[in-house]
TrEMBL record:
One of its GO terms (molecular function) is GTP binding. InterPro entries: MGD_biosynthesis_adapter, MobB_dom, P-loop_NTPase. This is Molybdopterin-guanine dinucleotide biosynthesis protein B. Pfam families: MobB. CDD domains: MobB (cd03116). Residues 9-140 form the Molybdopterin-guanine dinucleotide biosynthesis protein B (MobB) domain. GO terms for biological process: Mo-molybdopterin cofactor biosynthetic process.
Length: 180
């Protein structure tokens, strides 16, 4: 994303071990295959400064999947590395404007308003659907009630090709660049 160029943003949210990082890796790889440059921003939501291997492993996986730039944010530290009192998601996105990026995938930051994918592991995660804004689709490990299917585009976890294609199409709708 050059200065002033539009960049698509998609959030991947869910609780720990719901598959967020795996989905991010697949999406980053797929857009790379389409000739687009991806970036990732991970929110280190488990507390602490992201300064060890366990807290930065996801952003490293994003980078290995093909992200042009990848970062993790936690307790006032943006692991790119810069130290400030606190970085908002908006400030990190502005920083990313200095890179040539077509799409930014955001892991976490549940309460932000960007278009998002919600990953559901079990019934206890369903409260996310009533508390989060701007849900584009739901990917679930469990079978969901028809009421939920009527409100959102819903995929089962094993329908990987369907939801990856759906999400790529959503990115195409909001991108200034044409996919190859």
């Amino acid at each position: 994303m050059a200065m002033g160029q539009h960049c698509s943003i998609l959030q991947i949210v869910g609780y720990q071990n719901s598959g967020k990082t795996t989905l991010m890796e697949k999406l980053i790889s797929r857009v790379g295959q389409k000739g687009l440059k991806a970036a990732s921003i991970k929110h280190h939501g488990h507390g602490g400064v992201p300064n060890d291997v366990s807290s930065t492993k996801d952003s490293i996986l994003h980078f290995k999947a093909g992200a042009i730039v990848s970062s993790v944010m936690g307790e006032g530290v943006l692991q790119l590395s810069a130290r400030v009192d606190d970085w908002s998601l908006e400030e990190i996105i502005k920083l990313y404007s200095f890179f040539s990026i077509d799409v930014i995938f955001v892991e976490g930051y549940k309460r932000e308003y960007y278009p998002k994918v919600v990953l559901i592991r079990d019934e206890t995660d369903l409260q996310l659907l009533s508390s989060l804004p701007n849900i584009k689709c739901v990917i679930s490990h469990i079978k969901l009630d028809k009421d939920i299917n009527n409100n959102y585009q819903v995929f089962q976890l094993n329908e990987e090709e369907l939801y990856i294609d759906f999400l790529i199409e959503e990115l195409v709708k909001t991108s200034d660049r044409k996919f190859v």
